[in-house]
Design goal:
This protein is mostly helical. It has one domain. 74% of the residues lie in helices and 0% in strands. The protein is built from five helices and no strands. It is elongated and about 60 Å long.
Amino acid sequence: MKISKKGLALTSTFLFVLTSGLLIFTFTGCRPRGFNGPGFHPGIHGKDFSQRFLERMDKKISKLELSDIQQEKYNGIRKKLETDLNEMEKNQKLFFHEMRDEINRENPDMDKVAEMVKTKLVKMPDRMGKNIDYFTEFYSILDEDQKGRVLKEIREKMNRHEI
């Protein structure tokens, strides 16, 4: 069965959204709460996104009561994720400013806007792949009890959302 480029793009986008949501729901407790203003929910968005994300993740991880060896490995994974989040945040701000500048022009070049968005979308699978790798690297350092607790939370969060 041959998959078209459009089908592959849609599948990649779907997987990106699914894994992003799973990682955010699992590690931060962020969840939709209806239409509550900017961003539609008072989650972890704002000027210190990276730091707040990591703090919430740390709080969740602390409940797993990692051993010293596990904590050391987690700290290494966390450092890589922090670097990536800071880079992502910087790039996101730059992208937003470029988009805003183009859209606010008297006659915006919509082809340019479309190309900017496409370029950003092309990079998403690699970024999400890294996040999935971080999660599986973290999951692999857990003992069976800890893995069970993580799976229980993932299942609870997934069961809250109907597809």
